[in-house]
Design goal:
The complex is a heterodimer. Chain A is mostly beta strands. Chain A is built from no helices and twelve strands. In chain B, the strands form two sheets. In chain B, strands 2, 4, 5, 6, 9, 10 and 11 form a seven-stranded mixed sheet that branches. Chain B has a four-stranded antiparallel sheet with strand order 1-3-8-7, with no helix packed on it. Classes of the chains: A mainly beta, B mainly beta.
Amino acid sequence: GDSVTQMEGPVTLSEEAFLTINCTYTATGYPSLFWYVQYPGEGLQLLLKATKADDKGSNKGFEATYRKETTSFHLEKGSVQVSDSAVYFCALSAGGNEKLTFGTGTRLTIIP
Amino acid sequence: DAGVIQSPRHEVTEMGQEVTLRCKPISGHDYLFWYRQTMMRGLELLIYFNNNVPIDDSGMPEDRFSAKMPNASFSTLKIQPSEPRDSAVYFCASREITEAFFGQGTRLTVV
């Protein structure tokens, strides 16, 4: 079945550091890929998405590129801020199936 | 639109009691999802609906759980009887095309 594997957390970085959170997937067909973010006490919010191979999703300084050859969708940001502290979820929606399959989430903490 | 609205935000109940969680999706969205989030198991899809019809309930943990969507603007998730292991945050989400929008969740504590 479809599955998402993402980097184990928690991850702690200093402000202005470079961020990478790894995500790989297994799916039938050609999935759409997503990163969601969850701030404390809130629901998940869509951060960015990519719907076909080689697409790059970007938002708020975050980027992720859909790599079909490596079945990956790694999240990156060049300079993190304290306000980026949250839990990040990689997810996919595959083969016309409307449900989202989520990874386990990575808790990110940015220290000043 | 106010987004996906869930109620209550917090619920504390005693083991054996019936619990009903409520969700109002975003108007015009034809998919509705119920998820459960725990530290141990992460985010689990419990059930989802398309145009008010249940499509996949394979994630519902057992017969104590039931979900309904009587119309396009309302859904409920019921647990009867509740058990301490049901303690979790329950999220409702509705979807348009490729993006799912989540409610703020209901934190359920069963004591």
